[in-house]
């Protein structure tokens, strides 16, 4: 048989790899060990706080220190809530009011401003956005004196309005929402809504907000935690008030010539519980928002 008469062999099929999702590489024992050790180091301060909050005065000062929780947690809490000059229960309520109001306001105004900067074209938008970004470089401490004077002129010092109103919108929130809306909301979708006769506010409410729910969850959680943990400005503006926020109340527990650490850490543990609940509820939303923001082109 000549070369011309030999049958042609069918070409070998190459394995189709294009478009196939990459396989997940299983993590080794070293990775899990490292994560476990990191988690233990991160959780140890909370555990130690609970141990001291459940102990007696003798147990908090003994050497070697106690590492097992005691049985006086409810008794220590009763002492904390019974103090007449701290108003710890009212301070927790005030923190809930302030953190909730500030978070709701930041989500509303920052998402609205971020949508305007991302999808609306108006004169001076770039310069105004640059000014918003530059305000992030200014420390908050530089404006406390001027802010205190303004709150005094309005007669708000010593009230919760002085804590809520200055935090109703943040430069970080505007910048974060603007960056997310730029990629999450297509321009074609907005144009289609305009053709259907939707107004700008209707487009923001029905088109933009549903598309940026992960970003709203992340911003809301970060704002709630930051507002709850804020100490300096509530301490200044609520100085002398009978109903401060929780962080100021915890500092009042630690004031005096003799500090009773079981009281201080019992109050600190109670003030930390709402943050832990928020992180457990919104932790998945944080991961989702970060991942969706990372894969945007």
How do you describe this structure in short?
This protein is mainly alpha-helical. The chain has one domain: MetI-like fold (Orthogonal Bundle).
Strand content range: under 5%
Q: Span between N and C termini?
A: 59 Å
Number of strands: 0
- Regions with little confidence, pLDDT below 50 for 5+ residues: none
CATH class: Mainly Alpha
Order of helices and strands: HHHHHHHHHHHHHH
Label the CATH architecture. Answer: Orthogonal Bundle
- Mean pLDDT metric: 83
What do we call the CATH homologous superfamily?
Answer: MetI-like
CATH third-tier fold name: MetI-like fold
Radius of gyration: 28 Å
How much helicity do the residues have? 55-70%
Please report the number of helical segments: 14
Main beta sheet, described? none
What structural category do the secondary elements indicate?
mainly alpha
Number of domains: 1
Shape: globular
Write down the oligomeric state: single chain
Keywords: Cell membrane, Membrane, Transmembrane, Transmembrane helix, Transport
Main location: membrane
Subcellular location: Cell membrane
Organism: Micromonospora maris
Descriptive overview:
There is one protein chain. The protein is mainly α and 297 residues long. Helix content is 67%, strand content 0%. It contains 14 helices and no strands. It has helices at residues 29-53, 57-61, 73-82, 88-119, 125-135, 144-154, 161-164, 171-184, 187-195, 200-211, 213-229, 232-237, 246-253, 261-295. The mean pLDDT is 83.
Features:
globular; transport; 297 residues; cell membrane; 14 helices; mainly alpha; membrane; MetI-like fold
């Amino acid at each position: 048989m000549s070369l011309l008469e030999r049958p042609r062999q069918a070409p070998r099929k190459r394995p189709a790899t294009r478009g196939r999702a990459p396989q997940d590489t299983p993590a080794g024992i070293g990775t899990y060990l490292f994560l476990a050790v990191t988690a233990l180091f991160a959780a140890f301060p909370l555990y130690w706080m609970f141990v001291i909050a459940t102990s007696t005065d003798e147990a908090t000062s003994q050497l070697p220190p106690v590492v097992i929780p005691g049985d006086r947690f409810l008794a220590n809490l009763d002492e904390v809530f019974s103090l007449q000059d701290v108003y710890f229960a009212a301070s927790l309520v005030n923190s809930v009011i302030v953190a909730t109001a500030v978070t709701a306001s930041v989500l509303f105004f920052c998402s609205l401003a971020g949508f305007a900067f991302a999808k609306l074209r108006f004169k001076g938008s770039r310069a105004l956005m640059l000014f918003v970004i530059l305000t992030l470089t200014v420390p908050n401490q530089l404006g406390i004196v001027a802010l205190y004077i303004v709150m005094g002129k309005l007669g708000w010092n010593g009230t919760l309005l002085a804590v809520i109103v200055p935090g109703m919108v943040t430069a970080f929130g505007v910048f974060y929402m603007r960056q997310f809306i730029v990629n999450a909301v297509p321009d074609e979708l907005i144009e289609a809504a305009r053709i259907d006769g939707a107004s700008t506010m209707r487009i923001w409410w029905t088109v933009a907000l549903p598309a940026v729910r992960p970003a709203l969850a992340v911003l809301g959680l970060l704002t709630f935690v930051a507002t709850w943990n804020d100490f300096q400005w509530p301490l200044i503006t609520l100085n002398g008030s009978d109903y401060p926020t929780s962080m100021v109340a915890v500092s009042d527990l630690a004031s005096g010539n003799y500090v009773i650490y079981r009281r201080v850490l019992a109050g600190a543990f109670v003030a930390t519980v709402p943050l832990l609940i928020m992180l457990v509820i919104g932790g998945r939303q944080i991961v989702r928002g970060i991942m969706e923001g990372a894969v945007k082109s």
